[in-house]
Amino acid sequence: MGAGGLFIIGGGPAGAAMATALARRGLSPVVLEAQAGPRLKVGECLPPGANAVLAALGLEGRMAGAGHLPAHGNRFVWGSDAPAEHDFIYGTRGAGWRLDRRRFEEGLARASVEAGAEWRYGCRLVGCSRGARGGWRLEVETPRGAETYEADFVADATGRAARLSRMLGARRVLYDRLVGVAAYFETRAGEVAPEGENASAGEGESAGREDEDSFTLVEAVASGWWYSARLPGGKLVAAYMTDGDLLERDAARTPEGWLALLGAAKLTARRVAEAGGARPTRPRVLAADTSRLTCVAGEGWLAAGDAAVAFDPLSSHGITMALGGGLHAADAAIHYLGGRRDALGEYASLLDGAFARYLLMRRERYLAERRWPRETFWRRRHEPGAGGGARASRPRPKEGTAPAAVPV
Q1: pLDDT tens-digit series, residues 179-213
Q2: pLDDT one-digit tens code per residue, 136-158
Q3: Which has the closest alpha carbon to 327: 108, 47, 36, 82?
Q4: Cα distances (angstroms) measured from residue 320 to each of 51, 117, 140
Q5: Distance CA 117, CA 334 (A)
Q6: CB–CB of 301/153 below 8 Å?
Q7: For residues 147 and 24, what is the distance between their CA atoms, to the nearest angstrom?
Q8: Cα 408 from Cα 406, distance rounded (Å)
């Protein structure tokens, strides 16, 4: 049985940022990550606004050397058949980034370990209950078998699954049914690593051509919208975004079915063709909903990143918000453990305000597309009051485990 301490469940951007911030403040957080190691993930671009968070984590200067490429703007076909562009050169925050996502996750973990955090891969939380001393008793499946840890404070950074928070009685409110169906293409600049492999450009290697199209592309279609970007290692990613109940999942999961859907997005299809991508990898269907927990913190615990509040990829702030959320979560935990019992309530209020502002921005962006007002996907987003939580899951907490919650 491990000694008491501060445990973070989940090693994605939010968990890694939180661990780094805590370690730099003199604590010794332990990150329990269910996966065996860093892996390829969908979500590969950072806007210029992320640079401030990267700098706070000490990572901004490492980005180019780790094989990530600059992103110089966004191109969009939205509200009109004519494409428009937002060039980052006219901003004050510099370029954004196109990520080698596996290497990015690896860099986040390494930075936290260098700061003093402990990182344990292959450790999956299976149970959480109140301990004898008022802390937490964590039941974990590890590569060595079942183990139990005692924790004084726990943080949920398990993404939309919100694994820990659900165990503690929180429920998740869904504001839409959005899913993404993503696939990668081999381009003329290189080869794509198959799903699950860890192939990527090496440290300091050129992971792509600087003269290639470095803009992300968002293209609205009658049933949703498409996103695409050129990535390090000669990859191109394209993702079809629609509501899960509107998607023929069996067809979308095959390369042939996915390519048939791609035909409706003229500019995205042209980009794929010009990149030389003849056939995609097997498509993956991923949750992309706007959602939140009914409570994000309680006595001795909090949720961070997507586990607390999750954003539509159209916002372009998913990873950035997860990193920033991890930093705010670290501050809240430090103040709480230092005796400020109102720190978790302040943290909840911070997330509440950020989410409310996001909902307004999300509605405005979808209202800007009016070409298909009768299509179900767009009608749902244009209706008065669209964005209200239509569905919620309410797990039944185990006897004696539900903490006093801070509602959001």
Answers
A1: 999 999 877 554 443 333 333 334 333 334 444 68
A2: 999 999 999 999 999 999 999 99
A3: 108
A4: 9, 21, 29
A5: 15
A6: yes
A7: 28
A8: 7
How many residues comprise the chain? 408
Terminal Cα-to-Cα distance of the chain (whole angstroms): 34
Distances (CA, A) of 140 to 148, 149, 165: 6, 8, 15
* pLDDT value of position 392: 55
- Identify the DSSP state of 82: S
Tell me the whole-structure pTM to 2 decimals.
0.88
Helices 318-337 and 343-367: angle between axes, nearest 10 degrees: 170
Query: How many other β-carbons are positioned within 10 Å of the β-carbon of residue 42?
Result: 17
Paired with 140 in beta bridges are: 125, 147
User: Could you give the CA distance from residue 253 to residue 217 in angstroms, rounded to a whole number?
Assistant: 22
Instruction: State the DSSP string of 208-276.
Output: S-TTS--EEEEEEETTEEEEEEEEGGGEEEEEEEEEGGGS-HHHHTSHHHHHHHHTT-HHHHHHHHHHT
Q: What is the mean pLDDT of each run of 10 residues along the chain (408 residues)?
A: 76 97 96 87 85 91 89 95 90 84 93 96 96 89 96 96 97 96 77 39 40 87 96 92 91 90 95 80 93 96 97 89 96 96 97 96 96 97 70 44 37
Radius of gyration of the chain (CA): 21
Distance of alpha carbon 19 from alpha carbon 38, whole angstroms: 16
Give the amino acid at 233: G
